[in-house]
Specification:
Helices cover 33% and strands 28% of the residues. With 101 residues, it is an alpha+beta fold.
């Protein structure tokens, strides 16, 4: 069984699974008014740079958060409605801002 950590290492370390060209497209800046399916570049309130992607539907949500400078990767998924993903995302980013000072 392949773990999420193994996927993370392969994705960010090697260009064999996903080429550098495709990774660069995934990390490109968002184009206003156009869905690009890229990771979103965000700066936290504490000034940390991170890439995020999340969303879902009423019965399932998921979120990916990556702090490239700290090499920290977090993924979670939830079988629940009421936008719990957004609340967890907010709390995790605030917590990490404090931890990564």
């Amino acid at each position: 069984m392949i773990t999420l950590l193994q996927w993370y290492k392969v994705f960010w370390t090697y260009d064999k699974l996903i080429s550098k060209k495709i990774k660069d497209r995934m990390l490109q800046d968002n184009i206003p008014g156009k869905e690009t399916f890229t990771l979103n570049k965000v700066t936290s309130a504490g000034g940390k740079k991170l890439f995020v992607k999340g969303g879902g539907r009423p019965d399932f949500e998921s979120q990916t958060i990556y702090w490239p400078e700290e090499r920290v990767f977090l993924f979670f998924s939830i079988n629940r409605d009421k936008d719990l993903r957004r609340l967890i995302y907010r709390d995790v980013v605030l917590f990490m801002d404090k931890q990564l000072k």
